[in-house]
Write a structure and sequence with these properties.
13 helices, RibuloseP-bd_barrel, alpha/beta, 312 residues, binds orotidine-5'-monophosphate, two-stranded antiparallel sheet, 16% strand, Aldolase_TIM
């Protein structure tokens, strides 16, 4: 099974196309968690580590029945140095033990030889001394395509060797994504050209169910572009961020799916993990996260059924 097969198995098991973004912002973590950590460890990075980990574990417990996959965004962890990276690693291990797949959202890439080190560290297994190996627990990684094929090839080979996946930035959700991505060259927009490359890069790693281990990031905030991109990258799984907090709705994400009711995994971070701060959800952060993910899962499943894109 390639990464897409493994993802689709989880999607079927949970009957859910939702990805939960684990973007822990310290000042939004419930104070009962941060106060306890500070009481024990003081206002130290160790207290930050314990706060993030306890919060993430609580979120994972709350959403594990309703999500096939989670996406910790590396920036929220590595900003705290080695304590943050430790929180990331422990979070990933806990998500894996809880039966979830993981997108490591670190948006990496470089020249080929350096990209190989990123691929080994984040998806494969860097070797050290003689027989020692460090296996990455992440199932997939976000990568930038800016360096072209020789930056991408090491990732694709590692995906093939370890049944892992990548999501290449194609059309991002942010307001200024048009500044570069929508420029035209030879009558083709840059994001369309990247999509053509994504399709080509993925040809050698197609799984049993027809989807490639090379996926694409396509923002929920650009549904018209998503429809065009769906045509260009028929075999790619889309990671679709921008639902909820950035304005994307269930109707907006439907063009990212294929007619078979698969092909897109929709991420919400703040909208789920900090749902307890919104009036319409419970004050308890775990209960609120559960309410928010169930609501999102149903909204997407209903919109898919309405569009005749039936997954089950
Ligand atoms: O690659 C991503 O995940 C990503 C790409 C993109 O185009 N837009 C985007 O918002 N993201 C990430 O998706 C998450 C969105 O978070 P919320 O806006 O809180 O749901 C953040 O972790 C972003 O870094």
């Amino acid at each position: 099974m390639n990464f897409a097969d493994r993802l689709m198995e989880k999607v079927d098991e949970k009957r859910s196309h939702v990805c939960v973004g684990l973007d822990p912002r310290l000042d939004q973590i419930p104070t009962e968690i941060t106060d306890k950590a500070v009481a024990e460890y003081g206002t130290t990075l160790e207290a930050v580590y314990h706060s993030i980990l306890e919060f993430n574990q609580g979120i994972i417990d709350a959403v594990a029945d309703y999500a096939p996959i989670v996406k910790p965004q590396m920036a929220f962890y590595e900003q705290y140095g080695h304590w943050g990276v430790k929180a990331f690693e422990k979070t990933v291990a806990y998500a894996k033990e809880s039966g979830l797949l993981i997108i490591n959202d670190a948006k990496r890439n470089d020249i080929g030889s350096t990209a190989q080190a990123y691929a080994d560290g984040h998806l494969g297994s860097p070797k050290f001394w003689d027989e020692q190996k460090l296996e990455s627990n992440s199932d997939s990684l976000t990568v930038t395509p800016y360096l072209g094929s020789d930056g991408i090839n090491p990732f694709v080979e590692t995906c093939s060797d370890y049944d892992k996946g990548i999501f290449v930035l194609v059309k991002t959700s942010n307001p200024s994504s048009h500044e570069l991505q929508d420029l035209e060259s030879e009558g083709v927009k840059i994001y369309e050209k990247i999509a053509q490359l994504v399709s080509k890069w993925g040809e050698e790693v197609i799984g049993k169910r027809g989807y490639s281990a090379v996926g694409a990031v396509v923002g929920a905030t650009y549904p018209e572009e998503a429809a065009k991109l769906r045509e260009i990258m028929k075999n790619s799984y889309f990671l679709v961020p921008g639902y909820g907090a950035q304005g994307g709705t269930a109707a907006d994400v439907i063009p990212a799916f294929n007619g078979d009711g698969y092909g897109a995994i929709i991420n919400s971070s703040r909208g789920i993990i900090f749902a307890y701060q919104q009036d319409r959800y419970s004050d308890d952060y775990q209960e609120a996260a559960r309410e928010a993910i169930i609501e999102m899962r149903e909204a997407i499943n209903q919109a898919l059924a309405k569009a005749g894109k039936i997954s089950w």
